[in-house]
Amino acid sequence: MSDTEWPAKGARLVVAVDGPAGAGKGAVCRSAAQRFGLTYLETGALYRAVGLIGLRDGLTDETELGRVAGTMPFGFRALGDGRYGAFLGEEEVTLALRAEEVGQAASKVAAMPGVRAALLSFQRRYGGAHDAILDGRDVGSVVWPDADLKIFLTASLEERARRRAVELQERGEAVNLTELIARMAERDARDAGRAHAPMAAAPGAILVDTSTLTLEESCQAVWRLIAPLLEGHART
Ligand code: DC
């Protein structure tokens, strides 16, 4: 799908939330989606799905991974309990996508222009079909430069690693905080340093630093930015 075939944004509302791993993007976006009736797309899940397939099939070649990105049977489906799961065909991969090694693999495939190009139209179509909130690394800078609101959600490396450690511990996984900080720093450097669509605050993005905020406070900070957009907005 070429650029010009992308659906126009038109009257639809698009909120773009970018930032590094562990800043709270997922939880904050889910809460905002629920509160304001927006559709949420976690764009990192697409890169994670390509990373997962790459790990499973032992793929490292950009052309092959680009083909995977363009053809994988990835989608979100309602699980019937109000939650949505990530699926590759009939296989639910929600938990598999969260694994640390899959995050690292995702960050590596995300540096490949062929992979990014293949995933772009999915993200653009998704936002184009609903009032939506999307999170990732380049949503405000590349995917939806015409978003109604751009937020760069961040936190200190130490705080992000601490949050990730709690999440892993809750899942019963062993945690070494020093190692986690090193791996997160490595992923930040790769995501921000790559040549194509690096992680960056888009022009006009509002910076929200959650280092000293609780999750509730982080959600409220973002809700306060979104609420004025919805006043008088005809819902789609
Ligand atoms: O948000 P996340 O941790 O699930 O993302 C996993 C990796 O995918 C991240 O390290 C970089 C990549 N990514 C990206 O390059 N662009 C996006 N819009 C979202 C994720």
TrEMBL record:
Residues holding ATP: G19, P20, A21, G22, A23, G24, K25, G26, A27
HAMAP family: Cytidyl_kinase_type1
Domain Cytidylate kinase: 15-226
Family: Belongs to the cytidylate kinase family. Type 1 subfamily.
Record's subcellular location: Cytoplasm
Keyword field contains Nucleotidyltransferase: no
Keywords: ATP-binding, Cytoplasm, Kinase, Nucleotide-binding, Transferase
E.C. code: 2.7.4.25
Catalyzed reactions: CMP + ATP = CDP + ADP; dCMP + ATP = dCDP + ADP
EC class name: transferase
GO molecular function annotation: kinase activity
InterPro entries: Cytidylate_kin, Cytidylate_kinase_dom, P-loop_NTPase
Name of protein: Cytidylate kinase
Protein species of origin: Candidatus Magnetaquiglobus chichijimensis
